[in-house]
Amino acid sequence: GNSVTQMEGPVTLSEEAFLTINCTYTATGYPSLFWYVQYPGEGLQLLLKATKADDKGSNKGFEATYRKETTSFHLEKGSVQVSDSAVYFCALNGPGGGADGLTFGKGTHLIIQP
Amino acid sequence: GAVVSQHPSWVICKSGTSVKIECRSLDFQATTMFWYRQFPKQSLMLMATSNEGSKATYEQGVEKDKFLINHASLTLSTLTVTSAHPEDSSFYICSARGGTSPKEQFFGPGTRLTVL
Q1: How far apart are CA B79 and CA B17, in angstroms?
Q2: Which chain A residue has the Cα nearest residue B103?
Q3: pLDDT tens digits, residue range B51-67?
Q4: How far is A37 from chain B (nearest CA, A)?
Q5: Nearest to A6 by CA among A105, A111, A77
Q6: pLDDT tens-digit readout, A44-68
Q7: Does B108 sit within 8 Å of A45, measured CB to CB?
């Protein structure tokens, strides 16, 4: 079945540091890939997505590229801010492109210090 | 737009009682709603998928008689945990899909259930 593996947290960085959160997946077919963010006390919000190989999703300075050859979808940001502190979830769904429920990684808690 | 609410945000109940959790799409019609369960420091695990007016589809290993799901309208789905036990204590999260972004899931804030 489908599975998502992402790096364990918490990840603590200083403001303006470069961020990488690794995510790899196992899936049949060609899934769509997502990064969700959960701020304290709020629901999960879609951060970015990619629906096919070599697609790059981007939003709010975050980027992730769908790498089929390495089955990865690593999240990156060049300069993090304190407001980026949250839990980040990598996820995928089936080739139906939204017809299925999502398979999530365990989440990575990101802490940005001023 | 695309706001999903859950009620209650937290609940404590005695073992053996039943608890109902509501999930509402506030500003769009949700053709499909999903229920997830999250243990501490674990992934969100999909429990079931429900479409308005039809029976929910449960994931393997999820007891449909214990976790009753009713998607009675395009804006409301309920999850009832029947005869709750301490092992049912968890964080339950719903998501809804529909409106102008039919392929995107919008998540509620979650409900913390503690069974004593």
Answers
A1: 14
A2: A98
A3: 888 889 999 899 999 99
A4: 11
A5: A105
A6: 899 999 989 999 999 999 999 999 9
A7: no
